[in-house]
Amino acid sequence: MNQGNPITEKQKEQNEYTNASRYIMYLLKGALNQTVLRNLPTDCTWGVIWEIANRNCIEALIGNYIQKYGEIVPAEIRDTGKKIYNEMLYRQIRFDMEYEKVARELENQKLAYLILKGTNISRYYPEASTRWMSDYDILCAYIQQDQNGGYREKGETDEEIQYWKEKTCDAIQSAMKKCGYSLKQSGGCHNTYIKQSMFKFEMHYQLFSDSFDKAKAQYYQNPWKRAIPDEQRPYLYHYSKEDEYLYIVTHAYKHFSRSGSGIRTLIDVYLYIKNNMLMDWDYISAQLKILELEKFEELLRNTAIHAFSVEGEMTKEEWDTVFYMIGNGVYGTSQNRIRHFMKELDEKNNKNKVWCYIKDRVWLNENMIKEYFPFFYRHRILRPVMPLYRIIRGLLIHPKKIWREWRILSQTVQNDK
Asked: Counting CB atoms within 10 angstroms of each CB, which of 284, 356, 364, 374 has the fewest?
């Protein structure tokens, strides 16, 4: 007879979510290695399993894999999975056609361009259309050879460099307009262009903000330094396998250190390593040291390999990492971002957490003003009104988001007491 406290509904939900997360990892291992699905879910429903898959945008990958397992997977789930996979396939074909149009226009402008992130990784998935991509990320610039090796943006003096930066911006705008795209958002490391709400391109000028981690921002200050010309297309560039892996890891760290990163990041790392086993790991290790990412990369790599290899077994730390990533969804959570900030304050032994958080959110540093609010950067005399402008702008455009952030902040501070 159970003498302990009865399990609450919240605990039951948490237990089911944990079991469903474990089963998701079992499904992913099968999908990535094309092994036979044999086991039924234990102490969790297919509804919860699919909810997790949906939140992490892995329905197409799992949906395609489960089609031949009618004795295990309910027809409703298989039908939903097939529908999403077909939609993704159609979307991917259309997106690839759009990319070719954009690439041709960039070439017409004689712009150097380099494809980033998901577009390159998707080729390693069982089928390219099983990796969800919300957009195409492309690094663009007018470049020249650097006397120190590699390439860099054009210009010798500050004035010349600024001229070519503006020329790059105008050329991208012209290319995207000819392809039917409109500018949705500018500032930061990239400008975002959209078309028909379905297609989105992020055209990058740099890879990481100066307000990001100092070592990483410095390493990627010149994103063209390690670029390699394509053998077929004169304006297309790419990174070596090693440098692409380093960028994948650094980009993952950026999300981890802020709002968190989803399980798809772990899938990306596993498939990239699996398909590029002969990379120069000595070079990678040396660069990771410069980037100050040795421990993070080791955890990410070991967790990915142990999670998805056919014979892999995870440690407790690796399972904790997996549960954390699954809970993040694709783009992380506000709660994680606030928690990370509070942890930094704890390390500094700062007691007035709420005020420090508000101050950090409202009063931006010089680099962030330059990137996200260039008007106030150019007109210093108006800086005192910028916090008020940002508050009013936030309340008008994202009132629910502001309220949710405040509620999460209050809960986080209360839980820390």
From this structure: 374
Give 244-259 pLDDT, tens digit per residue: 999 999 999 998 887 7
Q: Is 322 buried (19+), middle (13-18) or exposed (0-12) by CB count in 10 A?
A: buried
SS3 211: coil
* CA distance linking residue 302 with residue 345, whole number of Å: 30
Least-confidence region, from 58-67, 267-276, 339-348 = 339-348
User: Tokens for 48?
Assistant: 């919860």
Q: Is the predicted pLDDT of residue 349 greater than 70, yes or no?
A: no
Strand partners, 137: 116, 202
| Element housing 190 (H / E) | strand 190-195
Helix (H, G, I), strand (E, B) or coil at 65: helix
Give the chain's radius of gyration (CA, Å). Answer: 23
| pTM attached to this predicted model | 0.86
The Cα 224–Cα 146 span in angstroms is 9
How many CB atoms within 10 Å of residue 398?
Answer: 12
